[in-house]
Every structure is written in C-alpha cells, then in structure tokens.
Here is the input.
Amino acid sequence: MPVSNCVESTHRAGDMPSTGLLIVNADYWWRDYGTTERIAECVLCRTVSSVSAMVFMEDSERSATIAKDRGIDAGLHLNFTAPFSAPNCPARLVERQKEIAGYLLRHRLAQVVFNPGLVRSFQCVVEAQLEEFGRLYGAKPDRIDGHHHMHLCANVLVQHLLPAGTIVRRNFSLQPGEKGVLNRLYRKIVDERLARRHRLADFFFSLPPLEPQSRLQRILSLSRDFTVEVETHPVNAEDHRFLTGDGVERWTAEVPIASRFTLRRSG
Here is the structure.
C-alpha cells in the first residue's frame, strides 16, 4: 500500500489524560476498490479511528477480509440510496432498495415524512444489511450510521429498525445561529428520540471545511471534555491530503485521535 506521504501519529488516546475523546470515522469503507485503499492508508497512518462499512457493494467481500485481518473497527453504513453493486445481491432486495431510493431522493424533505407504503421495503432492506454485515464481519454491528444520513429518516425511526443499544450517529452539531429555528428543533427532536434507544456521541461534525482553522480548533477544544465524532471521506482529495499529511499532526498535537470508536462519559 502506498504510504510514502503518510505522517504517522506519535501519540494515541491513552497518552494524555482527558475526559473526552476525538474520533475520526471514515465513511464508505467497502464501497469500491479505490475508496477502500484510500481509507486503509489513513488507518495505517493512525489518523482514522474507525470505518463505516457498506454492504452489497462491489468491494464488500475483499475489504471485509482486510478489516478482520487488520483489526479495523467497523460499523454499518446503512445504504438506502446508492445502488447495490455486488454481483451476489438478491434481485428482490435491489428492487426494494430502488423503491426506497425513488421516494427519498424525490424531494429533500421526503426523509422527514413517514411513508406507510414502504414499511415492508424499509424493514427488508435494513434487516438484509444487518445480516450481510454479520456474515461478512462475523458479528452484527454495534455501531450504525447512514449514507447521506438517511438512517435518520422517518420510516427508520418510527419503525424502530435500528437495534436498541447500538451506537447511532446523531445529527450534525450546529453552532449558535446556524440553520433556521425549525431545522434546529427538528434535529433536537430526532436526537432526543435516538437517545431513548441508542448510544450517541456528544457532538458530531464533518472534517471539511478545513478553513477557517478556528473551526477545527473548536472541534478539538470540545473533544477535551466530550466524545466528538468527526466524519471524513478519504475518497475526497482534500480529506485524504489532510489525513496523510502533517496538517492532522498539527491539529491533534494536544488531543490525540482515538484508536477506535468508543464512548466516554462526558466531563
């Protein structure tokens, strides 16, 4: 694996006392060969704590073996909208996912509206992905998020399709004044509903934008006292350069990146 530009982290989560935790999670593990290789490079650099794995995709089998062999912490990246590309994917499952995708992608607010006509399709597509993850990884996932965050759509929440007790990705954490009042209220309601059945990180952010630097410093400051998940997509050039260069080393000089995805009690 080409890692010549990788600046390996010299400290880990146990090296400094902290009541918080900085988790960098890479999405799209198992989507295709190139994506898997880029994420694996970041794992080797020790700048990624964990990965979110897609199943029924063209690289699912190979990268499942990589994850198990290397002890990579993997959760399920639940997928309702990206077409399944694995050759062994059942035709009926493909059709059910197409039904769901057609609905969720029809309008940007579709995910907040419960669709009674898709109850069976949602149930089948979620159960199939949970079972396939178990087959590939050897155990059901104890952590779940979603492609384009569709794991938070109304049907999934109302139908209680995510196993109770699992770690589930919350909505993005917002700064004061960011987004409108109704948007913030809806996110708050969803996160409170999630917290009744699942375990959540205290805060959740996307790695980009990398500028202004004050944004990344705010995330780092929160991780001193809280569990903070940072979502990254190393398939994107900007994320990959940051995670394999010296920028990430400077960013985490005071708070190290966790070695895997776990939750701590907030300080």
In short: The chain has a mean pLDDT of 90. The radius of gyration is 18 Å. Residues 13-251 form a domain with the TIM Barrel fold (CATH 3.20.20.370). The beta strands are 21-29, 50-53, 74-78, 143-146, 167-168, 203-206, 227-232.
